[in-house]
Amino acid sequence: MKRLQSQLDSKIYWLEMLRSDAELVETCGASLDGIRTKATKILAQIAPVDIIDTQQPKTSKVKKSKKSALSQTDGVKHALQTSDRHVFNTLFEIYRNTEDILTRCAISYLLKNSCKVTDKEEDYEKFTQRRRKLEIQIERLKEQLEARIPKGRDLTNTKWLQTLFTAIHNVPQSETEAKSWQNSLLRQSSSVPFPVAYEGSEEMTWFQNQKGRICVKFKGISEHTFEVYCDSRQLHWFKRFLEDQQIKRNSKHQHSSSLFTLRSGRIAWQEQEGKGEPWNVFTV
Questions:
Q1: At how many degrees (to 10) do helices 101-112 and 2-17 cross?
Q2: Which of 9, 12, 36, 276 is the most buried (most CB within 10 A)?
Q3: Residue 119 to residues 21, 36, 52, 203, 230: CA-CA distances in angstroms?
Q4: Each residue's pLDDT tens digit, 160-203
């Protein structure tokens, strides 16, 4: 999820920077030659000078084998790729940290031209296709992120009834809308609520009640107490969970909870027969 969000943020940021030559000229009020001159100055300040040496291998009187020549060529390509990444990342950083409009337009010009200054006239049709391709990538990333967001189950069939009412009294405006209604009506939603996950050991509190039974409370719903019912073969584990927290309390929190035997937990419902709300009928 975080990786997709990071990719989406980067592409949206790049879409804001990606402008045609005409748009850059209009934005900064300078001529295209002025933008190119500024881009050349910026590039001269950040481009590494040692890459020039790697582009021209030194000649030698000794004949090199074919394998050696290929190896040297690969080394030059790697150096060039490393240099390009360095320049690209540096330009992005300068763009973020400056408010000068001409500098920003010059950097946008460099980034869309592979960090180079060119005298060729821009092909607006190719630029439009490139921008549209980026917009499509952003749309797909948004769809992927939206699909990963957990959606609550329709425990009361409210959404299903609303979709049925809409489908009866309205005509779909597109195939996509019709497919969406169909999927909603045919989807079989489970009546069991989603389980609740607790990833930290500090989110669970273990103790013994007056009857001597081991109990646990969960952060956020501490008004509810859960008693442990298990076989004797599993009982020693729950005793260990209780002992871990007792040791920490008795030592005045000098021990870290990262050493607890239990690191995470989950509340899950088991389906039962009966009438009433699902969270009241099903057992935990």
A1: 110
A2: 36
A3: 12, 9, 22, 63, 78
A4: 888 888 888 888 888 888 888 888 888 776 667 778 888 777 78
